[in-house]
Amino acid sequence: MADSTLPAHASVVVIGGGIMGCSTLYHLAEMGVTDAILLERNTLTSGTTWHSAAQVRALRHSHNLTRMIQYSVDLYARLEEETGQNVGWIQKGSLSLATTPDRAVHVRRQEALAHAFGINAQWISTGEAKERWPLMNADDVLGAVWSPEDGRVSPSDVCAALVKGAKARGARIFEKTGVTGILTKDGRITGVETTQGTVMCDAIALCAGLWSREVGAMAGADVPALACEHFYLLTKPIDGVTGNMPTLSDHDNHLYIRDDSGGLLVGCFEPMGKPIKPGVLNADFEFGLLGEDWDHFEPMMMNALNRLPALETAEVKMLLNGPESFTPDGMFMLGETAETKGLFLGCGMNSVGMASGGGAGMNLAHAIVHGHTAYDLGEADAKRFAPIYNSLDHLMARAPEILGTHYEIAYPGRQLKTARDLRLLPLDAEYRAAKAHMGQVYGWERPLYFGKTAEPQMTFARPDWFENVRAEVKAAHEAAAVFDASPFGKIEVTGPDACAFLQYVCMRNMDRPVGTAIYTAVLNSRGTYESDITAHRIDTNHYRLFVGTNAIKRDLAWLTRHRDGFDVTLTDSTEDYAVLGLMGPKAARIVAQTGAPELNELGYFKVGPAHIAGKHVRAVRMSYVGEAGFEITCKAENARAIYAALTQAGAVPAGLFAQTSMRIEKGFAAMGHELDGDISPFVVGMAGMAKKTGGFVGAEALAEHVKTQSLSMVTIILHEDTAVPIGHESVYLGDKIIGQTTSAAYGYRIGAPIALAHVRQVEDGAAITVDIAGRKVAGVMRVEPAFDPGGERMRP
Hints:
alpha+beta, globular
């Protein structure tokens, strides 16, 4: 029974009574926030949760996402014991079919991941798959991965159990209570206006599912999620469907299949979904469904008839069309928004809400109570999207494609096709004239490689752009290449306390002479990475920070929220400036020839002004690719003249793939790969940069890490020239898994496939193997980088 009288104040208000809202409320109460309340406009589980197919498949592409779903499974079992409420857990496993060679590689990679994460999964033959699913036509099946620990739950029963557990700890539920407004002051949440009155609060957990974008807008926050139609077919009982069966995943045909009340449930994630315009799902859309669309479903139905001949004679109960919300990259949003302090998102679940909900709700509650998630979930960070991603035009184009990618093969280098050309570089026309193949990063179109206009053939083997990238690396290694770093975020830090502020938020000593560049970690209170940045001290009271392309929103919010007590101004200048990396042994000649010989007098990590092609630049002598060179910053409108001068003097353009290959060869760690919120500078060999005795965020935790942590990041060099590691592969020492690769590429300068990895047992020179889609490839572990030019110290 829901409560009837709203309190005047609650520490946290949870908006939305689906799986995410119920889970978040439960975990808030479990963590001691016993006055938390949940507001539901209609009835609990209305919206999306009630019609979920409720599959719980543990394996995801990263360890922490997998860990999160494993927590969900454990939680749902625990809830039953704690509350007495049955959650309908049925553990019959899942079968992932492969009907093409590339799908076989994809699922074998998943199997290898499962072993690394301690999940039971194994490749089985076509015959064994047929034994587990006798009703299927297996004529085109090459094999399958069997995951016996997967299962499904009853959505309404899980939510009932979570609510029961939350109420037992003091939390309260208010159904039939719609949110009509959100109160803020100075960019911070202060309260919620509802149809039943106003509640003042310190924080909001926005778990409003299909309506999250509109509710977020009430608080001035971007929540880029859009509903799409999602279909599954329900049949009446069919001969041969007895009891519960494994979930059958036939992703080459865009299908998932399971038993349902003696019949079958056949669902799909078709290649291009159907978006739903905001406003169609109004306040009265409670346990509502959308109209059957047999024309749209027909191609999927034909696939299903091929896989399950018994469907030919089955009686259809209904074609269920229920809305699900999708984000621009297919990952949910979790954590505090950049725009509004105290507004936390737990939404955009991309059809994996029931599997993710238990663990995601725990992490959201943890973020509200402790200021961070229980473990790094950077890929789901609520601050990761550029503002342009929240436009309705973008979402209407992108969300249907994201629905379709749900079952796509995870090819390396795959790019989305919709909603492109959102943000163009100052040199976009020049790059396209040079036959650049573009990729989208934070809305920017960036050159991945040059010299090919045709779309690349997706493959797990050596790609068709391999030689193009080789030529770009060769140019940077033997002559000179230009890498465009213009999309890097740029933040101007100005004011009397600029130095003191950066001393507080950065690990390294930032009080260096004007004209110095400093590479530094930005740590959180746990002594782990919040970000890594390069700062240029331009004047006594002026620093320019360079941050990751997709980190600008997150990093600017972090800095803004730590500047209390400091007289500083923070300004996002990202689009004002272009940055061109001129790298290679001929870089010195080229800058001299184009009008800036004085740049050759710069010491390493020194910044100086000059003029190239008559245009003002500020250049730093440094490199991200392990070759001597300069990063040249100029006004965006001057980039064309400067680029023309550099290329006329002999430099050639190089793309992101060449840069990544060279970065990995040089052993440089990158955020989101080797560095994240679980990683301390000690494990990546960077703790020696902290020369300050304290006084900065994370200093105390870092002092504790020195007692317990040691290097874990190593370089892996494979002996088989044609092997193609792509990251997230298990690393074996003997027959024991000791870690995983993080970034991988072909190392053109050393002539071998390479990777960076985090391992639990560091042995320089040890013979190791790497599991690439079920095949062990031999290699060697190195503590030092695969390639080191030996001359310049790139990060002093």
